[in-house]
Design brief:
The chain has 125 residues and is of the alpha+beta class. 15% of the residues lie in helices and 32% in strands. A hairpin with a 5-residue loop joins strand 3 and strand 4 (36-43).
Amino acid sequence: MAFKSTDFKGHFVTCFKVPDMNIKFCYLYRDAANYKNFNEAVFLNPAVMGREEIEKAIRKNLIDGQWFVSRKWNLTDMHFKEFEYDSEIDHDWHEFEAIEETSEDATEENSIEDFLLLVNKTKLP
């Protein structure tokens, strides 16, 4: 979106509004046979938190710097639904992949700030 305005000397200037950037949390489930099931959650970012700040907050709450339990973070469980859960080879851990800025619509009800509050309250095993 662009709009025209005048600067303090009365000159016309064109300003562009930067679109609000939501945050995409990318993750996956990897079973013991290394089959992968990917997912992403898009959060509103009303406080315009930076990607690096968000990723740092998430990484400090990951198991061994990489894994988390999706149900504890209120994210969709990505186990393969076509197969019955086998405790010998299946596990609860999901793998963090990336944080991205996006103009995609939010898929989650909570903002990224609310999500980080939940993440920070979650106890590591």
